């Protein structure tokens, strides 16, 4: 197990390094000069050159890359061009909002997807099974911003049931603050769950149908075990592993969906931060945000690999 975990960890480090490298060079291919957006008003060529030297933008690309890696290894993500604050501090202030949204969507998807998938498999060919299949295919085809905009317009603007932006009402304390938090979180959360829930439930349904056709399930029924116990204790235990692996792999999609959803709902997470930083050509802030999201996805997949191995030791082979 230790060797397996170490190999996966080394692969995760390599993946993060590739993500850092690609992000660094892609951002510098964006058109425009970030020094023009650092300060308000006109700048003389001398002022612009001084800013370029201050932020190291006058150096060759490979030199900038090496200096960035050197600082990154020491835990320094740089200083924001626009906000003139450490990038790490800015991201740390925004990251909890993204983790709250993405984490809530993950948990809710699993809690709803398991009974949906199991119930559909147990009623194979019936109306509820066809509804789950249709919901799964539709959810897989939907685009997160489309659902978010629809909910924003209908439930937020027309009906006025939910706020159309932000994460919490100002000047709220205690229970009122938690209620406000959940009130603002509802629409972004539903947007993500609708897209994630269908494919997850459909995958679990398919796995359950395969397991229910195995000989040991038929033997369990032949020994007089109840259908409920056979379904939830024996079949689900073996069918949930591929679905769990799929959910771990979909963390990237979930994080990407959270970024898009935050932009639509003006939710103050890392996704909204990326949207703001793109317009400002804030290289350090963009790099830091992408790196944090990449690390989140890679670590989630690493945890999924280890958990899958613990549940099924044959994976080590």
TrEMBL record:
InterPro entries: BPD_transp_1_N, MetI-like, MetI-like_sf. It is found in: Cell membrane. It is a multi-pass membrane protein. The chain crosses the membrane at residues 12-30, 101-122, 134-161, 181-202, 239-260, 289-311. Residues 95-304 form the ABC transmembrane type-1 domain. Keywords: Cell membrane, Membrane, Transmembrane, Transmembrane helix, Transport. GO terms for biological process: transmembrane transport. One of its GO terms (cellular component) is plasma membrane. Its main location: membrane. CDD domains: TM_PBP2. Belongs to the binding-protein-dependent transport system permease family. This is ABC transporter permease. It comes from Nonomuraea cypriaca. The lineage of its organism: Bacteria, Bacillati, Actinomycetota, Actinomycetes, Streptosporangiales.
